[in-house]
Structures are given as C-alpha cells and as structure tokens.
Amino acid sequence: MLTRNHVIRTSWQLLRRSVLLHPQVHFTTTAHRTMGKNNKKKSNTIPAEDFLRLPPLADASLADQPIIDTHTHLVSTFSTYRNKYRNGTLYTIHDFVREMYRNRNVRAIVDVWCEAPVLMAWRELADSALTAEDREQKWGGIDYWFVMGVHPHEAKSYNDAVEASILEAMAHPRCVGWGEMGLDYHYDNSPREIQQAVFIRQLNHAVRLGKPLTIHTREAEADTERILMEHVPADHKIHIHCFTDSPEFAQRLLHHFRNLYIGITGVITYSTNLNTSNIVSQMAKSDGGPRILLETDAPFMVPSNLYNSIPEIKGSRLPLCHTAMIPWVAEYTAGKAGHPWSGADIMKRANENAKIVYGV
Question: Which of 26, 64, 170, 332 has its Cβ near the most Cβ atoms within 10 Å?
C-alpha cells in the first residue's frame, strides 16, 4: 500500500478560499502525509497529461457497466494533478471531473473528507451538487456524494469543535456516511489509546444517526474487531475501506456483520499484497458471492494492470489515480474471483452493493 500524498496546510488554506472551484488560484506546494499506504519507488518521468484520460477499454462489457467509486479523495486528487502538471489544462475540480470522466460511464462518486480540523471547503463542493441541474452542468451528470469523519492519523486533533463540524455535515443531503475513521497501528501517527477513544466516539454518533460506516483499519485487527463488535449493531451498514489485512479477519467480520462489505482498490494488483486477492477468492466461492465495493482511494494506488493498456508509457508511472480507473480494478478482481466471474460481473455486483451500503 502506498503512502498518501496529501496537500500540506498551506494548500489547505488555499482550499478554504474555494480555489477548488475557482480557476484563478493555482496550487504551489505539496508534502507527504502518512495517511496509510507504503510508498513504492516510482520513475521520475511523469507521462503527459493526456495519458490520464486513459485508453478505451478492450472489454466492451466492462465499458457498458456504470462506474461507482465508493471512496475517493477529490481535493487531494485535484491538488496532486495541479502540482504534477503545472501547465495542466484543468483549473477546477469541476473541470477535472467533467474532463477526466467524460465518456467513461461514471455514475457516482463518494468523496471522503477525513481531516481535523474539518476543511470548510466541503460545503461549497457539496452544495454544488444539490440539484440535478447543477450535477449536470458542473459535474457532467455524475452524482456527487460524500462521507466525513476523522482518519486515525488525525485522531490526536479530534475535539468538540471538530465533532460539531462533522455533525453539521451529517445533515447535508449529499452526505451518505461517517468516515473514514478507525485504527492504524502501522504508522501510529496518533497514540493508540487516543485512536481507540476517537474511533469509539465517532462510531457512537454514526450508529445513533443511522449513518453507514467507512472504516480504515491497518495492522489493528484485534482492537478493530473488538471495538466494532462492542459498539456497532450486527445489521449496521459497514464499508471496510481498502482492505489489506488477513483474510481470517475479514471472514470474522463478514460472519458477524451481515451488511459489511470489503473495499477493493488498485492495491489488489500489487505483488506485495496477497491478502486482498485471497479474501476475494474466498468470498467468490461463498453462497452469496463477493461482498465487495470497488473504490480507488484516489489519488493513491493506480492499478498496475492499467499499464498493460498504455504501452506508450512503459517505464514510467502515472502520478495519480482517479475514478475512471475502476474497470481495471474490476478486471483484476475478476481474475482472482475466478470462473464464472467476469470484470463486468464484478462491477455489477459492486454497484449493487454500493446501493445497499450508501444508497448511491
């Protein structure tokens, strides 16, 4: 799993002045924030911007399936784009979404806000998707939804004011869940006891409000399992985002929580990660089939099998992931699920599950 490249506080201050929607201000600086993925060594050569628009899908049945990305970070994705392509042709998040997802059959995205303090830019973005007319004109017909919570790395900054901001966001008509939240013992950017306390505090509010849960868990199986089972009803809707822990852990959660689903990102395509492939294979053999959701966690984790479709950039790597890459994740996932699952079958099942969990 990759290290998350998030915009540093200087850029977040710019975002609070709404530069994500207005073209006159450009991003100028980035930094690494360890929000949860190990870095892979990358080529210094960045492919031309046009390659981000992606080639046509070889499998027409994949292209026919609508894309629903259940976990993406739009602000980080757009910020990464602006920093990697200083002369880029897209100047707002709306420009980016309309252009990158044009003719890609993207139906819906679930945007994730997980910072502390809460970035007030969330409201401007969410409000821009309130009406069908706005979604058509500004978003190219794509349904924009969001979730909000505090990532375990930010748990040390969680306080009453942060919580009040999240509770305010929960009432917004485009909000479909609470998260991402949870435990991360790989980096321990916040003390573990604080991570646990903040996780429980958020869970209690989300359960009280009936909001679906977007869960981040890494190398914290025992505590994540214990806390979820103590504080969350067995029928609550849960998305275990970007799953990479043990298949045994996943199976215990799936058995206990009947509305729990496993998030699959491009990390399934990485040779360093076998756990995700193994749990997909196990779920595919179960009576109900794979309880999965497809997600990008953009801008992180470009699916490695995508490069087979772009031989022109052999030896270099795209600097960011985005929602239109979902079909490559589905295609690879189908290979791990085995016969009779196709990439189109995986996308169809994941879309059905997204409706169950988030109503999108």
Answer: 332
